[in-house]
Amino acid sequence: MLEVRTFSPTDERFLEIVDRAADFDNDIGVTVANIIADVRTGGGEALLKYVRQFDAPLPDEAALRVTPEEIAAARSQVSPEFMEAIRDAVANIRRFHEPQIRKSYSVEFPDSVVLSKRVLPISRVGVYCPAGTAPLFSSMMMNTVPAQLAGVREIAVAIPPRKDGSISPHMLAVADYLGLKEIYKMGGAHAIAAFTHGAGVVGRVDKIVGPGNAYVAMAKRQVFGLVGIDSVAGPSEIVIIADRTANPRYIAADLLSQVEHGSGYESGVVFTDDRALADGVAAETAALLSRLERSDAIERALSRYGAVYVCRDLDEALAAANVVAPEHLEIQTENPERLLAIVLNAGAVFLGPWSTEPIGDYFAGTNHVLPTTGAARFSSGLGVADFQKDMSVIRYTRDRLKATGDKVITLAEGEFLTAHAHAVRVRMDDIRDK
Fold it and tell me: Which residue in 215, 225, 246, 357 has the most C-beta neighbors within 10 A?
């Protein structure tokens, strides 16, 4: 159950929360490495073997790819209200992400030297969309829309099928609305391996994005370098800073909205300067927990990585939150903007009682693919730039080389790289001879 504690930076539970990491069992690493190696050498046949073992009994390799008929059938199974909500959510995501598009530029010098930066889209991206405990079509939107805005030409999607070989109609309807045509029935480490090396009907990609279970996360870690990845995501987490003006029912609801993901490693923490609010949050959490479907996993997570801390003041609460560097940070105080000004580390910040975290998960337009387990100290949420790459272009002139070549030679020789120096010197000799 959610425990009320007096905050101290040396509190044992607090240190466990700060040190919480996406650790992997050694056996998972070995299993994943074997799967990747098998798919790399066995191609489509090996991929189908693992799909049959872990996902669904598909008849052949051709059945791995979702057909237009399956997509059409899915569209007929979802409500108009659902599609209206998807249209509005996608519009919000696009509107928020459009200003992130980076453009190529050139810097021209008076002596005709030109230095340029070409910004290009990644050519082919694989999007992994979890569908085990829940069909996460929201993840598909968050990963796909920025890629499309970046100009990615080919987007392949992996969705773990249900046991009967079908895919949630909501997932397929969203994919269809987004214009996604290349959709595969595969999940787990074998899907990551197929995207990395190519396997039968599945072509290799340049970058893989999207969350997944421990096997997916481990597979992404192991293939990084052969392909790009967005991150190795850990379990979800939320920190809420609140004062006496906050509603304990709202706080309890927001905490459990993130802890319900089900791995048992999620984290939910409240920092407050009001003991009465802390007790109220603990009571409301207990009452709500008894009514939720995934109460066992939630209780397991809260017993390890959950707490309500009573702090001296809100400044101490904010300092503690900066140490945690949470994926999601809610500020439900009388003046949240004051605290926002001193937030240093958070994936996304939600201000005020009406900015509940699920708004960011589904509809506001900001991206819900965010750094976890303290990574907000040094990284950012997913955006358009994650699907773009830079290419530098240098156009030097004879006159510029003549004026600066000796300096380049000096620098190269300072690093004892004589071949570097020679490449410049041979040109400088020709210039001097003429």
Answer: 246
CA distances from 224 to 193, 383, 428 (A): 11, 19, 42
Residue 327 annotated in active site? yes
Q: What is the pLDDT of residue 235?
A: 86
Residue 231 CB contacts under 8 Å (≥ 6 apart), including other chains: 369, 371, 372, 375, 379
User: Catalytic pick from 237, 328, 330, 357?
Assistant: 328
Cα diameter, the chain: 88
Q: What is the mean pLDDT of residues 25-45?
A: 94
CA distance 106 to 116: 4
| Segment 295-301 long-range contacts (CB within 8 Å, at least 24 positions apart) | 297/260, 297/262, 297/263, 297/264, 298/256, 298/259, 298/260, 298/266, 299/1, 300/264, 301/235, 301/259, 301/263, 301/264, 301/265, 301/266, 301/267, 301/268
Summarised one tens digit per residue, pLDDT across range 85-126 is 999 999 999 999 999 999 999 999 999 999 999 999 999 999
Full DSSP string of 395-425: E--HHHHHHHHHHHHHHHHHTT-HHHHHHHH
Give the whole-angstrom CA distance, residue 308 versus residue 278: 6
Q: pLDDT at residue 22 above 60?
A: no
Both tokens of residue 357?
Answer: 């975290």
DSSP state of 224: B
Query: CA Rg, the chain, in Å?
Result: 26
**pLDDT tens digits, one per residue of 380-410:** 999 999 999 999 999 999 999 999 999 999 9
User: Beta partners for 147?
Assistant: none
The one catalytic residue in 327, 330, 357, 368 is 327
